[in-house]
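Good morning C.,

I know you're traveling, so I'll keep this short. The sequence:
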Amino acid sequence: MSTQLVAFAIFAAVLTVTPGLDTMLVLRTAALTGRRAGMAAIAGITLGCLGWAVASALGVTALLTASRLAFDVLRVAGAAYLCWLGGRALWRARRPVPADPAASRMDVQPGAAAAFRTGLVTNLLNPKVGVFYLSVMPQFLPDANPLLGSLALGAVHVVEGVVWLSVIVLAVVRARSWLTRPAVKRRLEQLTGLVFLAFGLRLALEQAPR
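The tokens, ready to paste straight into the viewer:
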């Protein structure tokens, strides 16, 4: 089991540090809302991944590959949610930049509860996360006790994600005084909106696994 864990840990570490939707979500949240909201977003992402890991261990995510309808319903819902997040970020970026930087910093942003919810929903509504657990994990599972093996591999992936995203939050918080400048903030909102829309459109065009 230790050999499989080490191999999966290396594979998952590379996957974790590769920039993606979770990275962008945490970066944007920490930059515009602060460390508490950034950590809340990580908690939501973590809970979503844990949910998929448990579902994979129990065989629930096999329905995504067995049923095209189940995959498509989840895919469309996830794509719509990501496009909504992207459109909202782009709309915020269109608002006039306040002349007073202090007023810009006081601009209302979603709090920790909203950040947690966004992190959770973006993961739970992404069928590709479930397919990843279902298609990748079996390659590293031991012959005996696959249920415990799946949970162990899921825990490794989650822990690595928490560590990496926490490092991002700490780094962003240090640079937050620069990131919350009106012009930088607007560009960050625009970039976030475009990234979310791109992920949403990509998910919308994703085909069910065969």
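Safe travels,
E.
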